[in-house]
Amino acid sequence: MFQFVKQAVATSSAVRCSLLTTTGGRTASQRAVHTKRIRVPPPVKPWNDAHLKITPFGWVLLAIPATTFGLGCWQVQRKQWKEELIRNLETRMRLEARPIPDDLTELDDMEYQKVTVRGHFLHDQELHLGPRALIQDGDSKTAGGLFSQKETSIGYLVITPFKLEGRDDTILINRGWVPKRYLDPATRPEGQPRGTIALEGVVRLPENRPQFTPNQRGAIFMYRDVPRMAEIRRTSPYFLDATAAATVPHGPVGGQTRVTLRNEHLSYIMTWFSLSGFTAWLWVRQVVRGKSF
């Protein structure tokens, strides 16, 4: 009896081990099959590793968008400067005229400001500046009745020394514009006022010599070279533009002061920033990403 029970227990243990082995094998097989169905995505390459592909030449090319961006910022500053200059100019032009100061050096800080003077012209020492087109200010075009419509495109400015009354100072005054055929003072004797007169003028400073402009020859100047004009006529180096009110019949047309300044910096800003953005996009596409067109 004891032998029979021992044999039954051994048989039961063997069957249990067989079942466990079979179950464990199936579970491992099922796990293997399940594992094979999972697709692991490839590792993502971080952006910081992209710089490893950029060659020294690629970094050099980055100077193009960087430079154009800097030029755009510079044009923003230039635009602000030009707008401030225009505001100051307009403010000075609206100020009431004041008598010319006793110390003429004060005129160096008064450009575009109006002053009044009293004295007489030295017509025999007249100079000319040009060629210039007529600046039409109100009715000044017809004030003198001196020329026709066809003559307004070319002419000269008449620069005449002006002896200040009661003083030893003589300055230069731009009396205004005349057509080329009236350049000779003998052709306009009625437009040469004599004696003491009072007039109003706008303070102007010397111009820098424009590029490629030839040197001055004779009594005709290509630009407002005040020091040279004063040296030739032995006057003080100060210059006024006579206003339109100073125009006399058959004489030069006054009011030839340009009060407008070109302000095209906004278009320059758009151009440089657009070019910077476009070249930066090309740089990223071709140098960083390695894509070609």
Architecture overview:
It is built from six helices and eight strands. The protein is an alpha/beta fold. Strand 4 and strand 5 form a beta hairpin. Helix 3 packs antiparallel against helix 6. It starts with a helix and ends in a 5-residue tail after the last helix. It has a five-stranded mixed barrel. 37% of the residues lie in helices and 17% in strands.
Rg over C-alpha atoms, rounded to the nearest angstrom: 44 Å
Number of strands: 8
Largest sheet: 5 strands, mixed, barrel
Instruction: For the record, give the distance between the C-alpha atoms at the N and C termini, rounded to a whole number.
Output: 94 Å
Q: Give unreliable regions as ranges.
A: 19-25, 138-145
Tell the overall outline: elongated
Question: SSE order in H/E notation?
Answer: HHHEEEHEEEEHEH
Fraction of helical residues: 25-40%
Count of helical segments? 6
Strand order of the largest sheet: 2-4-5-8-6
Q: Whole-number average pLDDT?
A: 80
- Going by helix content, strand content and strand pairing, the class is alpha/beta
Strand content: 15-25%
Describe the secondary-structure layout:
Layout: H1 2-36, H2 56-61, H3 63-94, E1 98-99, E2 114-121, E3 127-132, H4 140-143, E4 155-164, E5 170-179, E6 197-204, E7 220-221, H5 226-233, E8 239-242, H6 265-288
Parallel strand pairs: 1-2, 3-7, 5-8
Antiparallel strand pairs: 2-4, 2-6, 3-4, 4-5, 6-8
Helix pairs in contact: 3-6
Keywords:
37% helix, single chain, alpha/beta, elongated
